[in-house]
Amino acid sequence: MSYPDYHTHTSRCGHAVGNPLQYVEVALAKRLSGIGIADHIPLLPEPDPEIAMGLCELGDYVAEVTSLKARFPGYVLLGAEADYRPGTIAEVRELLAEHPFDYVIGSVHHLGTWGIDDERQIEEYSGRDIDDVYSEYFELVGDAAESGAFDIMGHLDLAKKFGYRPSRSLATEMETLVARVARAGVLVEINTAGLRKPVREAYPSVTLLGLLREYRVPITFGSDAHKPEEVGADFDRAAALARTAGYSEYTALVESGTVARARTVIRALDPRGE
Ligand code: ZN
Ligand code: FE
Ligand code: FE
To answer: pTM to 2 decimals?
Structure first.
């Protein structure tokens, strides 16, 4: 049995394919120990149908995943991936409070109005100081962690997605981020989607992960699947990365049985391989 996958999308977000049941079926077929559906909840302040579901779809999304939870008790969780953008956090909090999410992944995708992982806006990198892009990104992720709105921090170093690398180590910026994340008491995911992107590397890097380990930050696994067949993708490599960084444990989520967010349970990483 393999690790649970807490980061999966569905066709509702406008740039993924498949319905929640199809994702659950792949998780079962791959013998994952659980799956959370965590689609992009509506983007604020302005909606974007290619980035996230519309406001009118959120209720249907919650109902659909909730019915899967009843059909596969203890196996499926209702999650969400929510954007952290300064200025919208109060509204995001309200939106999240309206539904019984088991967990919420907090992700930074924007520096101001620029969607840094958006292929439609990739040219923006050539006009930017890449060191600044990274440090601004890390600062926002720290702000997101401290907001208290999220349970898991998504793709901690997404700025590397297209292969743009900083000119220096950014060790100070990274340590500041990790200290903030540790103090906030949030989980951090090992997200294997980076392996499928130009950077060909999971988020976060082994350097960041080593720091997270030093600060005792617990980890989860997420494929960031945008197709059902990507569920659980490269989890053997993610576990190997975790072990390389010094981890021997990961965190699983268990439904609390109330409207509160899921409980966390510490589980051992397989010491050999997957
Ligand atoms: Zn997406
Ligand atoms: Fe994301
Ligand atoms: Fe995602």
So the answer is: 0.97
